[in-house]
Amino acid sequence: MNESNPEYKMQTAPAGYDKEREGIARGIIQTVEYPSRVVGNTRKAMVYTPPGYSAEQEYSVLYLLHGIGGDETEWYNHGKPQIILDNLYADQMLKPMIVVLPNGRAMLNDRAEGDLFAPDKVQAFETFESDLLHDLIPYIEANYPVRTDRMHRAIAGLSMGGGQSLNIGLNNMDRFAWIGAFSPAPNTKLPELLLPEPQKAAELLSLLWLSCGDLDSLKNVSDRTHAYLSQYSVPHIWVEENGDHDWPVWKNGLYQFSKLIF
């Protein structure tokens, strides 16, 4: 745990947190297509709207990013975020939010196929920052009743998407007040490049979350980031939990992080 947030007590997600329950209201998750001027084509994202969703209400937005081997369906297929979120809503533990699951590989052929580590594919994860800021966020804000200020916008992700969340979120603190990284991958910038002005993050961020499994071979990325944040007294939550670079850690990250935002 991080000494910057001594009041946060890590809770293990309860048994059944990711299992479909009977007799509760459910949200809807569906695929949308948005025009990307950055990439030059139409791109796909999945969007979760919560139980009781109404155009008469205004919602916060969480952008939830996938790993290097996935696309906009990866969380849906492996992490069941809609079930985790539905259960949290049933227990009255979440603020009203829309969750957007983008494809973080911003290139014409954005499918997870071939050599995933090819330079153009890795570059596409960097290009996604522009696609997100200039194409996807405006599309969501034009088509859903969402709040558009930084206090109602969050970004989080797993592995490659965890690195993206740190790189994009900390580079755009005027747009994101809530940032979460679950087992961030080596695409995460070095701490002094990630956060050259640590005091700015201390002043602006409502939550900076960093979690990783203790058996994860990429844990050095989280360790160095946590050490830098601690050195410069940037408030953050650091969770080292039992586990590897795998879905139990990432699903628990979503469960814990989503309860704290907005």
Describe this structure as you would to a colleague:
The chain is α/β, with parallel strands linked by helices and about 260 residues long. Strands 1-2-4-3-5-6-7-8 form an eight-stranded mixed β-sheet, with helices on both faces. It is built from eight helices and eight strands; from the N terminus they run E-E-E-H-H-E-H-E-H-E-H-H-E-H-E-H. Helix 2 packs parallel to helix 8.
Keywords:
262 residues, alpha/beta, 20% strand, globular
Put the structure in a nutshell.
This protein is of the alpha/beta class and 262 residues long.
> Helix proportion of residues, in percent?
25-40%
Which strands sit side by side, in order, in the main sheet? 1-2-4-3-5-6-7-8
Largest sheet: 8 strands, mixed
Assess the beta-strand content as a share of residues: 15-25%
Task: Assign the structural class, choosing from mainly alpha, mainly beta, alpha/beta, alpha+beta, or little secondary structure.
Answer: alpha/beta
Coarse shape: globular
Alpha carbon gap, first and last residue: 22 Å
Present the secondary structure layout.
Elements: E1 28-36, E2 41-49, E3 60-65, H1 74-79, H2 81-90, E4 97-101, H3 119-143, E5 153-158, H4 160-171, E6 178-182, H5 191-194, H6 198-204, E7 207-213, H7 219-231, E8 237-241, H8 247-260
Helix pairs in contact: 2-8
